[in-house]
Amino acid sequence: MGEELRLSIAADVDVVEARQQGRALAAVAGFSSGEQTVIAAAISEIARNILMYAKRGEITLSLSQNGDRQGVVIIAVDQGPGIPDIERAMQYGYSTSHGVGAGLPGAKRLMDEFDLKSVPGQGTTVIMKKWRRAI
Ligand SMILES: Nc1ncnc2c1ncn2[C@@H]1O[C@H](COP(=O)(O)OP(=O)(O)OP(=O)(O)O)[C@@H](O)[C@H]1O
Ligand SMILES: [Mg+2]
């Protein structure tokens, strides 16, 4: 472990930064270039959602060890409006902003673990993990 990065998300540049830092941390964890891109894409979607729906929030990136597997952990927290119907929000094509509605289901598909908790009026927390394939 050791490495932990806390990033404030409040503007477009922060989304780019989170994406880049996620890619860099994935590289440190030994993920392949392709896997780094996948992890960066998932971070990007979750960061974009913070910006669009909550205006601001925080993303923490860290490394984790599970047995002999090394992984990256992404925790995204905001105190925005929250999500009233999580099941619906997780469906491909559901969007309250005329978006594609692919961000949440896409991020879930890209990562190994995906947990979304949200309380309307209080905010949203997304925890995502990806484990390196054993070699
Ligand atoms: N952090 C958040 N706070 C509040 N609502 C959210 C948050 N993230 C997602 N949502 C809600 O979940 C819906 C689905 O999110 P998702 O990222 O899948 O699609 P989208 O953002 O609408 O479009 P896309 O990401 O494809 O551009 C959003 O339209 C929004 O209503
Ligand atoms: Mg989105």
Defining traits:
alpha+beta; binds magnesium ion; five-stranded antiparallel β-sheet; 135 residues; 4 helices; binds adenosine-5'-triphosphate; Heat Shock Protein 90
Structural summary, described in words:
- The two termini are 20 Å apart.
- This protein has a 5-stranded antiparallel sheet, with helices on one face.
- It is of the alpha+beta class.
- Helix 1 (12-28) runs antiparallel to helix 2 (33-54) and helix 2 packs antiparallel against helix 4.
- The chain is 38% helix and 31% strand.
- It has one domain (4-131): Heat Shock Protein 90 (2-Layer Sandwich).
- A hairpin with a 2-residue loop joins strand 2 and strand 3 (69-78).
- It contains 4 helices and 5 strands, in the order βααββααββ.
- It binds adenosine-5'-triphosphate and magnesium ion.
- Adenosine-5'-triphosphate (ATP) binds at residues 45, 49-50, 53-54, 78, 80-83, 89, 94-97, 99-105, 124.
Give the class-level CATH name: Alpha Beta
Share of helix among residues?
25-40%
Low-confidence stretches: none
> Order of helices and strands, N to C?
EHHEEHHEE
Specify the number of helices. 4
Radius of gyration: 14 Å
CATH architecture: 2-Layer Sandwich
Structural class designation? alpha+beta
Q: Which overall shape is indicated by the principal axes computed on the Cα atoms?
A: globular
- Please give the alpha-carbon distance between the first and last residues: 20 Å
Number of strands: 5
Number of individual domains: 1
CATH superfamily: Histidine kinase-like ATPase, C-terminal domain
